[in-house]
């Protein structure tokens, strides 16, 4: 018996509402002359931190901060220098103290890497996880990933 046909799981940049552009740097390369796998963690960090630490979005009220607790990366294609990248981010899940993101890196219309990351809201004074507030949840709504079933 044949397995059911698998739907294409290649991410589409348009499904990620938060986007940033950047350059591939020569320093990002490894001896194989492509972007080193560890550099992708920095690309994904740039996307998360740029969104969450921008006080105008209301995702980090005074007295709290975000820490990343998980990062799962999928390398999809080789990325070389010189070049530009477009990073995308979308929220896929809320926990009591956490937010789960899907993230992508595209170059020349091709998804070269994707990731799922989890960030936890931390009380700066106690250094303990703290519950997401209604305001934080409301302020994340524009950043929900499109085309993702949360059921």
TrEMBL record:
Keyword Cytoplasm: no
Keyword Lipid metabolism (UniProt): no
Keywords of the record: Hydrolase
Family matches, as Pfam families: 4HBT_2
GO terms, molecular function: fatty acyl-CoA hydrolase activity
InterPro entries cross-referenced by the UniProt entry: 4-hydroxybenzoyl-CoA_TE (IPR050563), HotDog_dom_sf (IPR029069)
SUPFAM superfamilies listed in its UniProt record: Thioesterase/thiol ester dehydrase-isomerase
PANTHER family with a match to the protein in the record: 4-HYDROXYBENZOYL-COA THIOESTERASE FAMILY MEMBER (PTHR31793), NOVEL THIOESTERASE SUPERFAMILY DOMAIN AND SAPOSIN A-TYPE DOMAIN CONTAINING PROTEIN (0610012H03RIK) (PTHR31793:SF27)
Family stated for the protein in its record: Belongs to the 4-hydroxybenzoyl-CoA thioesterase family.
Protein name: Acyl-CoA thioesterase
Species of provenance: Bradyrhizobium sediminis
């Amino acid at each position: 018996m044949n397995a059911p046909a698998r739907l294409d799981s290649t991410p589409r940049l348009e499904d990620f509402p938060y986007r940033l552009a950047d350059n591939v740097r020569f320093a990002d390369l490894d001896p194989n002359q492509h972007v080193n796998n560890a550099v992708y963690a920095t690309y994904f960090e740039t996307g998360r931190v740029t969104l969450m630490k921008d006080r105008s979005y209301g995702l980090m009220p005074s007295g709290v901060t975000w820490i990343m607790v998980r990062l799962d990366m999928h390398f999809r294609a080789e990325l070389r220098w010189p070049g530009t990248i477009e990073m995308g981010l979308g929220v896929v899940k809320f926990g009591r103290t956490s937010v789960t993101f899907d993230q992508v890196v595209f170059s020349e219309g091709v998804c070269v890497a994707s990731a799922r990351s989890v960030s936890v809201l931390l009380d700066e004074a106690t250094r303990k996880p703290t519950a997401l507030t209604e305001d934080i949840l409301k302020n994340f709504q524009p950043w929900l990933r499109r085309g993702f079933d949360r059921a």
